[in-house]
Amino acid sequence: MTVPAPLGLLAELTHACPLHCAYCSNPLELVARTDELSTSDWLAVIAAAAALGVAQVHLSGGEPLRRADLPEIAAGCADRGVYTNLITSGVGLSAERLAALPVDHAQLSVQDADPAGAARISGTRAWDHKLAAARVVKAAGLPLTVNVVLHRHNIDRVDTLVALAERMGADRLELAHTQYYGWAQRNRSWLLPTAAQVRAADAAVAGAARRLAGRMEVLYVSPDLHTGTPKPCMGGWGRQQLTVAPNGDVLPCPVARVLPDLPVDNVRDRPLPAIWYDSQGFNRFRGTDWMAPPCRGCPRREVDFGGCRCQAYQFTGDAGATDPVCRLSPHRPLVDAVLATAVLATAVPAVDAPDVAPEYRRRF
Ligand code: SF4
Ligand code: FES
């Protein structure tokens, strides 16, 4: 098959973060600061990515503002003419810092519609920082996306979350159901919404999208566990996106380290084009030849690419299996069993629900 050039690079500059969100999809084993790529390493990665054809770089983490050299890295993106998106918690984003960052867009995370709920899920009192960060982004004239990860403890407040995004002046609101990887997978039984909660949220989001059409884009990432429709994860393995982890590991998706047999190359050892085009890791699930039934022969195989490899591995132990969220997968009962636990868990009144135990929060 002809391998297309990548479109987007997720640059995970650091795993360090002032927030400790229970839904974080960063790996349980976070990269130590002493193992992070240097400034010159990152500038070389960005130059190589742009030469490969990457048009968008997402400066992410952790919290990218934790890197003192963020202005130089962002300038490296601007020099190469790539569209640069700053993905931030907002903590530490002052007008002065933003003025030194030649980025094209900012994506700000919001954890809940009120300070107490946000502090509960993130383990940090960051509410005022977020409101201030939104003002700073808008004052700088940058487009602002507000991103909210939905889970059992905030999903009933979609309307208030939408109102908050409007007050913040968001150009775009992403309401994305939790992806159960890393810390989120560990906390899955605490985070999973019930089917009734999801139905109510679906309706609330659809209503908001209609009301705000032409003023604020409302993007909804459906819960694939509930819908039974696999997501085209990363737009297809090794098809559009690559991730460079803080230590220079190059991954087809941010979570791919969970796959035990996947060879992972590092930018310190191998040029980025060779990793993208020729590495075993990127070629492992490219295209459709690797698929087994029911994906093989399914009319949706070039729509969802068999779903998510990491989710398939987490549920079945086989990264080459059909994503078990799919209604056609023989492993679908494993997903239904997990969803049944959400119903049981919400039998506990929310006010008495145990908070996330400290060992279940990322701290870094
Ligand atoms: Fe997608 Fe495979 Fe399910 Fe078909 S069988 S819908 S290709 S995951
Ligand atoms: Fe790794 Fe979906 S998260 S392929």
Automatic annotation (TrEMBL):
EC numbers: 1.21.98.4
Keyword Iron listed: yes
Keywords: 4Fe-4S, Iron, Iron-sulfur, Metal-binding, Oxidoreductase, PQQ biosynthesis, S-adenosyl-L-methionine
Short name of any one Pfam family annotated for the protein: Radical_SAM
Known pathway: Cofactor biosynthesis; pyrroloquinoline quinone biosynthesis
Chain residues that bind [4Fe-4S] cluster: C17, C21, C24
Matching SUPFAM superfamilies: Radical SAM enzymes
Key word 4Fe-4S present: yes
CDD domains xrefs: Radical_SAM (cd01335)
MF terms in GO: 4 iron, 4 sulfur cluster binding; cyclase activity; iron ion binding; oxidoreductase activity; S-adenosyl-L-methionine binding
Coiled coil: none
Catalysis performed (reactions): [PQQ precursor protein] + S-adenosyl-L-methionine = E-Y cross-linked-[PQQ precursor protein] + 5'-deoxyadenosine + L-methionine + H(+)
Cofactors required: [4Fe-4S] cluster
Domain Radical SAM core as annotated: residue spans: 3-217
Membrane spanning stretches: none
Signal peptide from the UniProt entry: none
Cofactor-binding details, from the entry: Binds 1 [4Fe-4S] cluster. The cluster is coordinated with 3 cysteines and an exchangeable S-adenosyl-L-methionine.
GO biological process, any: pyrroloquinoline quinone biosynthetic process
Family of this protein: Belongs to the radical SAM superfamily. PqqE family.
Cited function: Catalyzes the cross-linking of a glutamate residue and a tyrosine residue in the PqqA protein as part of the biosynthesis of pyrroloquinoline quinone (PQQ).
PANTHER family: PQQA PEPTIDE CYCLASE (PTHR11228:SF7), RADICAL SAM DOMAIN PROTEIN (PTHR11228)
Subunit and interaction comment: Interacts with PqqD. The interaction is necessary for activity of PqqE.
Protein name as it appears in the record: PqqA peptide cyclase
Source organism (scientific name): Planosporangium flavigriseum
